Amino acid sequence: MDERPIERYDPKAIEERWQRVWEDARAFYADDPEPGTGDETHWYQLEMLPYPSGSSLHMGHVLNYTMGDVQTHIRRRMGWTVLRPMGWDAFGLPAENAAIREGGHPREIIDRNIAAIQKQMKRLGWAIDWDREISAHRPDFYRWTQWLFLRFFEHDLAYRKEAPVNWCPNDQTVVANEYVVDGHCERCGALVELRNMTQWFFRTTAYADQLLEYDLPPGGEWPERTKTIQRNWIGRSEGAEILFRVDELDLDVPVFTTRADTLYGATFFVVAPEHPFVEAHASEEAQAYARHAGARRVEDRAAETEKTGVFTGHHATNPVNGERLPIWVADYVLMDYGTGAIMAVPAHDERDAEFAETFGLPVIQVIDEDGRLINSDGFDGLSAEEGARAIVASLAEQGRGAQTISYRLRDWSFSRQRYWGCPIPIVYCDACGLVPVPDDELPLLLPDVDDYAPKGKPPLASNEEWINVSCPSCGGPAKRDPDTMDTFVDSSWYFLRYVDPHNDEAPFGRALVDYWLPVSQYIGGIDHATGHLLYSRFFVKALNDFGLLGFREPFGRLFHQGWVQLGGTKMSKTKGNVLGPDDFVAAYGADAVRLYILFLGPADQDMEWTDSGVEGIVRFLRRLWRVVHEVAAAAPPSDGAVTPLTRKAHATVAKVTDDVLRRFQFHTPISAVMELVNELSADPTGPSARFAAETAVSLIQPYAPHIAEELWVALGHERLWEAPWPVADESQLERDTFELVVQVNGKVRDRFEVDAGLSEDELVARATASERVRAHLDGVELRKTIVVPGKLVNLVVG
Predict the structure, then answer these.
(1) Burial tier of 448 (Cβ tally within 10 Å: 0-12, 13-18, 19+)
(2) pTM of the model
(3) How many helices (H) and strands (E) does the chain have?
(4) What is the structure's pLDDT at 6?
């Protein structure tokens, strides 16, 4: 390293210098423990890996990865061995669509984007162990994605069946739910239809009850909001399954209901557009309606106020009274609930009532104002709860109903009729059926194709050389599966591969994965609560049951950041309003960008990016540079004396440490260091100035590591990244005085400094003696006094 000091604050020169030093020293690379060893102070810090479908990070990425960087630096300096890897969610539709737009091969575009984004990450100075870099599109990764799929297949947790999908007739391809906007294809605008296709599924429903429980490690913590979202998505409901007979088809259609007490009030029957009954038995008019209605997003259908539907041409018989109920198909009924079919009771359900009013269907009340059954034959007079039990018991004797538990959760459809994804290692043989590709033949490589645009069938199906193969079992002619896996499969296990990324014998070693995991701290958006986060939990629980892991949750602690907004809208590649860091880093330096993104506001709330705001951070860094150099040049060595400035320094240490590690807030620590620097600047040559300067530089290091290292050297030290994290002296946190807040009926009326040793009676006496307070006490009775020691007195009057 060039030891010559940099005289002025030059972010580019300083940052390039220290990034070279860290890389040469391998400062942030984590060593694995030797077999049979390993201490307990290890920490696995992880943020959700990025899609490299674009050539740049945006400020939302900068927020997440800088938060993780602050955590990493503090934990390392507190003595933890910290693992913090990085990788690329490189397969999937966003990358393929980007390649189609740019007119190149996905692999070339992805590799180019990865190189560009990695350069940005290194320029920002993030502490990442690049030896552990992985990417979902590389064969040494997806070999093990395929291996894991085969383990799920062996355990009957991966299977094929026909299921409805969104189909764009113009693009001739399946369209994911998130790319359907008001029933139309987001890319071309064509009206999307439902079409039944054979799909691969993971049997997530087999783990429904287990996914309701969180087997977190000691110290683990997930936001209650996230757990509530997942539990609602799983949707466990206790109720009854009732069979409705369609006599003309000799067919029973099951219904799940939590309101068996209202069965006598059913006046019509409704199936969801995706229900198999529609394609198999409904009229042409009903099928045409279902193709378009079912392709609309579930959220849009649920929010729709105008009810639409079509009579299917058939009737279902109500098992309690023999009434023939017309069977309709309507988009307000969802396949995600129960069986996708309902008995409609318009007298006691608002949505059913709206539908009945729209189509002139009858309404029969069967529960009176007292909550008792009426118009229900022999069950009249029973309470709703008693009536439900009695009706289900009666139907059970006839074989027409039973108590059951239903889940909103559905099995995870993970096959995609697109090119850019992990090939599915299954061969189809007329003689042998579904045959797994042998483990020793993995990876099944994704072949290069010249034309991967969708044309009505999976692109791989057109590659005759690749698709036609000999059966691994009998040697006869067979075909490969032309579909590829959804990228959520990759992100459901990538965090396991990080700990053993170069293992050629297995996806990961059991000892290493059990040592590092569960992930100590995971950071990412709450929008992944019912996708990636739920799928990862399913994967880990299943792999634990397979004996491959020794834990049942992937992430011990979870934090959801707020969204970085531009012009009031969340930054997103799909919205085209992303702002990258490059121009700001070039103009102001990486440290300024890192500090500013965390200074915008509370980390768990949305925040607005403004270009001009970073200039205030630059002014702070220049002031820090100037003041520390003044201290280095003129301040005497610290003599250990207790002064107001040393008290301030220790209070700042306590606040920064608590805010980052316990409260997971990052903006308030910056403010606290700014306050310390302000007080230091008032007397940079005083007896405590050097201690205060060292403290300020040490505390700002996780946020602005480059300038901190340079200033640490100026103060006569070296290798701040390895220096112990400062610890507050509790004795110096005690104050001789404190600010007493005085309230009257909960409203602040005065505040002033008092001695810290005053008793509660003395505090009340001081409070009532205040002229500002007495104005609110005259002529009224003092009924109660509330004293919070060290903080406030509240006088309750009336």
Answers:
(1) exposed
(2) 0.88
(3) 27, 33
(4) 67
